[in-house]
Amino acid sequence: MITANRKLKVILAQPRGFCAGVERAISIVEEAIRIYGPPVFVRHEIVHNKRVVDELKNKGAIFVDEVSDIPDGGVTIFSAHGISEKVENQARLRSLPVIDATCPLVSKVHKEGQHHATKNRDVILIGHASHPEVEGTMGRIKGGVHLVTNIEDVKNLQVRDENKVAYVTQTTLSVDDTREIIAELKEKFPNIIGPDVRDICYATQNRQAAVRNIAGE
Known about the structure:
By secondary structure, the protein is an alpha/beta fold. It folds into two domains: about 20-100, Rossmann fold (3-Layer(aba) Sandwich); about 105-205, 3-Layer(aba) Sandwich (Cobalt-precorrin-4 Transmethylase, domain 1), CATH 3.40.1010. It has eight helices and seven strands; from the N terminus they run H-E-H-E-E-H-E-H-E-H-E-H-E-H-H. The protein has helices spanning about 20-35, 50-60, 85-95, 105-120, 130-140, 150-155, 175-190, 205-215; strands spanning about 40-45, 60-65, 75-80, 100, 120-125, 145-150, 165-170. Strand 5, helix 5 (about 130-140) and strand 6 (about 145-150) form a beta-alpha-beta unit.
């Protein structure tokens, strides 16, 4: 139990807080409310943070699970996690005014996967099943995607041509989360193509490292 007279030392991790992609998505929703007036409709939570979501609700954002939940003419915002082509087409067919808040790094993963698919490579996605970003990425790459979540998935993976394989990763996974899986992929497919290290989002990694660094203080 903490007594009233006990002094506590508070250590603030650096860096901390939201990444640039999340800050951008929040600003997009707030600006849409300012320009168009409430309500605006956001497919899925704009970010995984209850406080932020509740604040946006109070300002006039309505969060929905599917495009079909949005009334005709409703200003529609896609979350930072990205969407599949199917969802995008649903909004287009209804002529909904759309604002895309997809994180630019997520969009870059989409483009990389699409590029590999046009080269007839098997595309492997390292990520978590049912995560909104993974669903969006898999729905953006034609020809299908192999989803792997652990080393066992890699061991059981079958591709058309072991010399024509590429991988992309869910951006919200840290380097630590993917290191062993990537190593296993490279061992199984020596010629596999992966993203340039400069393309990796280090926000998650940096924040996890910051917590580890202060854990012993």
